[in-house]
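Supplementary Methods, section 5.1.

A reviewer requested that the exact input to the structure prediction be made available. We therefore reproduce it here, unchanged from the version used in the analyses.
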Amino acid sequence: MTAAANPLRGESVLMVAGVSYVLRPTFESLVLAEAELGSLFALVERAAAGALTLTEMTALLWHCLPPESRPDRAAVGQAVVAMGLVAATQPVRAVLAQVLQGET
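The structure derived from this sequence is encoded token-by-token as follows.
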């Protein structure tokens, strides 16, 4: 699957096991992430403080993957570890920026 992200819609790309997935922070995906992780504003604050956990990063990214083609969560976690936490903050930052800015 080749995916192209539209940054104007808050999308970014995540590579999982050599496959490119578009992260789409839809209302539904963010509601599900919030149900699991707690307040998204608190998540933004933890991210700004450098206190976001690997589990939180993986869960947020996993929820923003299209459900019809989403890999299992362990594969997303392995992708985050493989890219390194610094590089993984880029797609996380894109999702959180969309949360704060809303639709453009």
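The radius of gyration is 12 Å. These observations are discussed further in the main text.
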